């Protein structure tokens, strides 16, 4: 435990003068599980290309995360219903979506109903601007809680509009008690584009020891080597990649059939290290082409026929990372919950980074 606290103290000193950059590669990332994963009651997880808890990929569930970004309106809501209605997890419960809600045109009664139906509601700022201010982040969470029945403490996640984030963005999340960010894209293989390497995908991790991802390939994300945010989770946005390993898209793939694109990369996860497979979309992408709704429905019909595949929220992913278990145990736990909302508890509390360059 002492070593873990020491790393935080070092951060307060060394973060002075650090500059944000798109050239950060994550090559120097280092995390010792003995002072992170193995410390009881410390919400810390090293970045990894294998399941947590020392489990084999064959022994763990395959998780799928469906996310929808931007305003929730009477126009954007129906296509999301069209791709999720009728699909269930192995316990017979409806599959959920993580909604990253921006406030501008959102109809709060719909957000309220989405939450009651078992979906997760997360923060996507008020005005949908990249590199958002602390006010844009906090006011969105406050507005959702004020105009719905959703407790503010249940709104624990964030995604940056246009995926434009920087050290100040993550500092705002850390200082204001968010549990996770999911804004940094990730390419499997890290330049070594073989089928074997693309089956080794990054699992969620906490940023106690920095950012484990290559910001050179993460679009408009800006990072630096000295960022440290103890207990703040990063849920990587895994890029879709073609048969040669080249990235097709982080969100809303347009080149190819939706079913084929998603199924190819899902199979890489399912036959690889079982890292959570993400589907990151805007409802407008579904509206633009009817065949996309058909393709996504076909995809869900295929994967929900597998008894070890679960469509889950980000909160449920973090719960699993904290307490990993074999897939048989996971199914028994889910069946005992009888379609109720998970008992997720955020361990994040507001902090102030005493010394920063922002």
Please tell me about this protein's structure.
Residues 1-17 have low confidence and may be disordered. This protein has helices at residues 2-14, 77-84, 108-116, 134-147, 167-175, 195-198, 258-270, 283-288, 290-303, 314-322, 327-337; strands at 62-69, 98-101, 120-123, 157-158, 180-181, 185-186, 205-207, 229-234, 237-238, 240-241, 247-249, 277-281, 309-311. It has a single domain (2-337), classed as TIM Barrel (Alpha-Beta Barrel). It is of the alpha/beta class. The strands form 4 sheets. Strands 1, 2, 3, 12 and 13 form a 5-stranded parallel beta sheet that branches. A 4-stranded mixed beta sheet has the order 4-5-8-7. A two-stranded parallel sheet has the order 6-9.
Keywords:
alpha/beta, TIM Barrel, four-stranded mixed beta sheet, 11 helices, 13 strands, disordered N terminus
> At CATH's second level, what is the architecture?
Alpha-Beta Barrel
**Mean of residue pLDDT values:** 90
Largest sheet data: 5 strands, parallel
Give the amount of beta strand, in percent: 5-15%
């Amino acid at each position: 435990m002492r070593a873990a606290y020491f790393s935080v103290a070092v951060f307060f000193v060394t973060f002075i003068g650090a500059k944000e950059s798109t050239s950060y590669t994550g090559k120097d990332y280092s995390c010792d599980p003995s002072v992170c994963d193995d410390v009881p009651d410390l919400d810390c997880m090293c970045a990894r290309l294998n399941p947590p808890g020392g489990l084999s990929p064959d022994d763990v569930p395959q998780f799928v995360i469906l996310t929808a970004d931007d305003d929730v309106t009477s126009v954007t809501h129906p296509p999301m219903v069209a791709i999720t209605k009728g699909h269930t997890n192995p316990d017979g419960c409806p599959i959920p979506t993580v909604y990253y809600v921006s406030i501008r045109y959102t109809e709060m009664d719909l957000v309220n109903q989405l939450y009651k139906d078992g979906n997760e509601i997360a923060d996507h700022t008020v005005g949908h601007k990249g590199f958002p201010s602390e006010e844009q982040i906090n006011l969105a969470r406050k507005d959702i809680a004020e105009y719905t029945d959703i407790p503010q403490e249940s709104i624990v996640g964030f995604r940056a509009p246009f995926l434009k984030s920087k050290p100040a963005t993550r500092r705002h999340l850390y200082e204001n008690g968010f549990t996770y960010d999911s804004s940094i894209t990730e390419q499997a293989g890290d330049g070594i584009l073989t089928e074997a390497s693309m089956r080794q995908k990054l699992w969620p991790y906490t940023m106690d020891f920095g950012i484990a991802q290559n910001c050179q390939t993460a679009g408009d994300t800006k990072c630096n080597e000295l960022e440290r945010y103890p207990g703040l989770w990063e849920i990587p946005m895994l890029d879709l990649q073609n048969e040669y390993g080249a990235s097709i898209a982080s969100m809303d793939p347009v080149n190819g059939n939706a079913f084929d694109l998603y199924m190819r990369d899902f199979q890489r996860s399912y036959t690889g290290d079982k890292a959570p497979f993400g589907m990151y979309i805007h409802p407008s992408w579904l509206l633009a082409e009817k065949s996309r709704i058909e393709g996504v429905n076909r995809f869900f019909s295929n994967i929900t026929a597998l008894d070890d595949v679960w469509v889950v929220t980000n909160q449920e992913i973090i719960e699993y990372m904290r307490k990993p278990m074999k897939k048989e145990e996971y199914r028994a736990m889910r069946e005992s919950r009888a379609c109720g909302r998970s008992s997720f508890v955020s361990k994040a509390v507001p902090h102030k980074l005493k010394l920063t360059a922002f």
